[in-house]
Amino acid sequence: MEEEKNRSKLRELADEEEQIISEYCDRYKLHEYQNAFYPPPSGDWKVDAPFLESYFESAKLILTSIYSGALPEGVAGPSACFLCRHYLELALKYTLFHSRWLKDEQRNALDDEVGSVGKKDGHLLLELWRKLDAEVKGRMPSILASGLDLAYVEKFVEDYDGIDPNGETFRYSGSKLAVKPKRIPPLVSPTVLGIDFNHLLFSLELVHDVLTTVDTYLVEQYGQNQEWEEELKSQ
């Protein structure tokens, strides 16, 4: 019985070794390229995806995996932090755009009056938040009286802005790849940034819920105004 177990174990080890060798040798073989992207012949295409939810769900999945131990934080952590920040930037921009659909709580803006939101608005989170906060206060102040924890959103934005003001902190290791100059090392080495991924996950989910609710209020108010305007026209 013991001998059979040993033979089975040896077979498993041999199979694993064969698989490792095969995977290693595979990089030295010539392969036919397999297309990953298929743009239409017209050349007129778009990525059909809910970008906001894509970044939120991806960040949430990685953070949950880090917290559970399924992914090492040293490897997956930077990606999670980058995805969180990019989600936050998109969420602020989408909500800011929808706030511009309104002139005020009773009137909708005309199509040519709605200011666009895009790359020209930059990547500075705190600046985007200040624009959104000001426009919501001016166009739909009832949101401020709803009890939504907007103060937490502001703190989260400020926290990220302090660590990653321009969206580069979790994208690269340093500002460039280069040979370090030979010099006397500093007396004190830089301290490693501490990250509580459980708290980050909590903040991500709460901020997502708050901003999604604000966005929903804005879009629904636009719809209600539109219905009222159509009713007035029909009288």
Question: What general outline do the C-alpha atoms trace?
Answer: extended
Look at the structure and give the mean pLDDT. Answer: 89
DSSP summary: helix tally:
6
Report the end-to-end length measured between terminal Cα atoms: 92 Å
Spans where pLDDT lies below 50 across 5 or more residues = none
The biggest sheet, with number of strands, parallel, antiparallel or mixed sense and barrel status, is: none
Percent of residues in beta strands? under 5%
The helix/strand order is HHHHHH
Rg of Cα set? 26 Å
Tell me how many strands there are: 0
Explain this structure to me?
- 58% of the residues lie in helices and 0% in strands.
- With 235 residues, it is mainly α.
- The protein has a domain at 49-172 and 196-226.
- The chain starts with a helix and ends with a helix.
Layout of helices and strands, plus pairs?
Elements: H1 2-25, H2 51-68, H3 73-99, H4 125-139, H5 150-163, H6 197-234
Question: What key attributes describe this structure?
Answer:
extended, mainly alpha, about 240 residues
In short:
The protein has 235 residues and is mostly helical. The chain is built from six helices and no strands.
